[in-house]
Amino acid sequence: MSRYQRQTMLPEMGEAGQQRLSSARVLVVGAGGLSATLLPLLAGAGVGFIRLYDGDRVELHNLHRQTLFGVDDVGQPKVFCVQRALGQRNPDCQVEAHPQQLNASELPQVLEGIDLVVDAADNFAITYLLSDTCSPRGLPLICASVLGRKGYVGGFCGGAPSYRAVFPQLPVVSGNCNTAGVMGPAVATLGAMQAQMALSVLLKLTPSPLGCMIHCDFVDWHVRPFRFDDAPEPDVPGTPFIDRLMLTEEDCIVELRSREEAPVSVADRVIRILPQQIASWQPPADQRVVLVCTSGMRAAQAAENLAARGITRLALMAANML
User: Fold this and answer.
1) Which of 18, 120, 174, 259 would you call most buried, defined as having the most Cβ atoms within 10 angstroms of its Cβ?
2) Where in the chain is the domain with CATH 3.40.50.720?
3) What is 2-227's CATH superfamily?
4) How far apart are CA 254 and CA 22, in angstroms?
5) What are the C-alpha distances in Å from 260 to residues 76, 145, 274, 276, 300?
């Protein structure tokens, strides 16, 4: 146990805490910038098992912030590069690598035997999907997101309010690192905070980070924590995200992207309706309406319009999750 001597010295840790980490099973979604700091800290602390999902390959523009990777890793699946890197850091940590996006249909099986979920994908559609699945199961969920030099980290579910309790509606506009840019140290800071929250949950330290969110602004140098332990869950369940395997023959699939944007949709039998046409469209009364776009943002806005008109059988699909 000499590897962990400096942390087992802590009175809140001890040998019992180290054994708790050794037996812990964690699901991490995303192997990018947040995980570059998060994963070595979890493995270094002695977390025994990490199940990792990410469908991307390493690209040169990743390297300024995704510091687990080197030039020789460019072109390789991220999860296998992570698996190799963590194995060199701590062979006691088992990393189960899945080189694919985590889909809604397989998530219940993926969560079997898992003690904690960490959302490091920085994709709001995945965050809502994870929260919707973790909350009824009582599984704690640690989320973070970074853009530019600002971001947040928070602990949800597991007895605390869900992500939807704090953010009941999907964003109207949403940037990402590809379109708006990001600073590497900001990503690393939020990834480290995710790791500390995750370890605190696994060790059952008090006060719990579940029900806590911290907003970090490295532009004006503000760090603002707040608790949301009493945030009420939405009266009406949010519209769920689904994937292709969850489509049925009876669904009315609405493709919100033009043919120029998406020549091929998620299925052969789709109705193409642009977002500005939703308000005048009359959906079928006897079918579930599945709304499709790239990120899920336009689909969520269309779902809000339809829900306000009394249409309740709705689902969302984000093509960047498929």
Assistant:
1) 120
2) 2-227
3) NAD(P)-binding Rossmann-like Domain (3.40.50.720)
4) 47
5) 30, 30, 12, 16, 21
For the chain, what percent of residues have pLDDT higher than 70?
A: 97
Q: What's the rounded Cα separation, in Å, for the pair 141 and 129?
A: 11
Report which of 302, 299, 289, 305 is spatially closest to residue 319, judged by C-alpha positions.
299
Q: Is the pLDDT of residue 210 over 70?
A: yes
Superfamily of domain 244-321 in the CATH hierarchy: Rhodanese-like domain (3.40.250.10)
174 — pLDDT class (breaks 50, 70, 90): low
Residue ranges, CATH 3.40.250.10, the chain:
244-321
Structure tokens of 322? 């498929």
Average pLDDT, stretch 55-73? 95
Mean pLDDT of 39-46: 98
Report residue 173's pLDDT band, with 50, 70 and 90 as the boundaries.
low
pTM: 0.94
pLDDT in tens, 89-124: 999 999 999 999 999 999 999 999 999 999 999 888
Cα dihedral sign for 191, 196, 202, 205?
Answer: negative
Cα(166)–Cα(267) distance, integer angstroms: 33
